[in-house]
Design a protein that fits this description.
Order of helices and strands: EEEEEEEEEEE
Number of strands: 11
Shape: globular
Oligomer: single chain
Helix content: under 10%
Distance between the termini: 40 Å
Strand content: over 45%
Largest sheet: 7 strands, mixed
Radius of gyration: 13 Å
Length: 116
């Protein structure tokens, strides 16, 4: 059974930091690109960052460049999102996603709330 389990969300003041984790199981981690998406109330889900498990290449949305860092630990089948200099408009449910030609999987999400 494929599972993506996010953790690390919470409430933080503007300017603070959080580290999200995504623990993956049930599929061959190296075959997938793993990404983070977020969805704020009343808004569409948007891509935040992703990383290729095979070669480590990364992508960041313009809104988070220079503040967020994505990393992976293939030995642990885990992906992390270090979020620094958080702003109130980063408030959203953050979802982990794994995609390849073999499938497209989502976690249940973790809430991040940034207070001003």
């Amino acid at each position: 059974e494929v599972q993506l389990v996010e953790s690390g969300g919470g409430l933080v003041q503007a300017g603070g930091s959080l580290r999200l984790s995504c623990a993956a199981s049930g599929f061959t981690f190296d075959d997938y690109a793993i990404g983070w998406f977020r969805q704020a109330p009343g808004k569409e889900r948007e891509g935040v960052s992703c990383i290729s498990s095979s070669d480590g290449s990364t992508y960041y949305a313009n809104s988070v460049k220079g503040r967020f860092t994505i990393s992976s630990d293939n030995a642990k089948n885990a992906v992390y999102l270090q979020m620094n200099s958080l702003r109130p408009d980063d408030t959203a449910v953050y979802y982990c996603n794994a995609v390849s030609y073999q499938g497209n999987y989502w976690g249940q999400g973790t809430q991040v709330t940034v207070s001003s």
